[in-house]
Specification:
Helices cover 47% and strands 0% of the residues. The chain is mostly helical. The two termini are 21 Å apart. This is Protein kinase domain-containing protein.
Length: 64
């Protein structure tokens, strides 16, 4: 779920849709890994607010 949707209840925009699509692509190219695995909710919120990004999956090439 996009950061703004996590922080502000029921806030869904085209930006949160794009974010969700990006996470879905990440899951596909990581062959089904769980994003942010092992992070607690509070830690996830803090990292996302600090612009934390998932590493590029092994099966996604640079142009993607």
């Amino acid at each position: 779920m996009a950061l703004e949707s996590l922080i502000h209840e029921k806030v869904y925009t085209n930006k949160s849709d794009v974010w969700a699509y990006g996470i879905t692509l990440w899951e596909i190219f990581s062959l089904g890994k769980t994003p942010y695995q092992g992070m607690k909710f509070g830690e996830l919120i803090q990292r996302l607010q600090a612009n934390y990004r998932l590493e590029s999956p092994d099966y996604a090439n640079e142009p993607m």
